[in-house]
Design a protein that fits this description.
150 residues, alpha/beta, Oxidized Rhodanese, domain 1, five-stranded parallel β-sheet, 7 strands
Length: 150
């Protein structure tokens, strides 16, 4: 008897390959961004939340440009072929998607960092800002791993 997992058959391997490769063309995750952070990074890490949220807590090396303020004029300071990696609060926030739409419409390469700030903290990585302890207190250790408490 088929379960909810097996009732719909898995895609053929070639279709699965194309599907998951396409996902990776649009998004990256906190671990990959963390591992790639170094002087001379090959992407621009863009925090697209409001300045107050950025001041409270943000990723190291991030630049704050709220999605509503993304314009061709504001992007002139960045090379036109430079990859932007955008993030917001997390899965409950669509600011990163809104920013990605604007960047792509302006002809800029872009990827979404899935998980956002909460995913970054959940992964155990450091953040900068004035309200770090308040934010990190919302992520508690559960059974040896981090789990979101909000």
């Amino acid at each position: 008897m088929a379960t909810l997992v097996t009732k719909i058959p898995a895609a053929a391997p070639d279709k699965a390959h194309a599907h998951f490769l396409q996902h990776l063309a649009f998004e990256t995750d906190c671990w990959d961004v963390h591992d790639a952070m170094q002087p001379g990074m090959d992407f621009i890490l863009l925090d697209v939340r409001l300045p107050s949220a950025f001041a409270a807590a943000h990723l190291p090396n991030a630049i704050n440009l709220p999605y509503a303020e993304i314009t061709a004029e504001r992007l002139r300071e960045f090379p036109s072929d430079q990859l932007f990696v955008v993030y917001c609060n997390g899965h409950h926030c669509n600011a990163a998607h809104r920013a990605a739409v604007k960047l792509a419409a302006l002809g800029r390469p872009v990827k979404d960092m899935i998980g956002g700030v909460m995913g970054w903290i959940y992964s155990g990585f450091e953040v900068e800002g004035r309200e770090i302890q308040q934010l990190e207190s919302k992520v508690e250790l559960v059974g040896g791993s981090r789990a979101c408490a909000i």
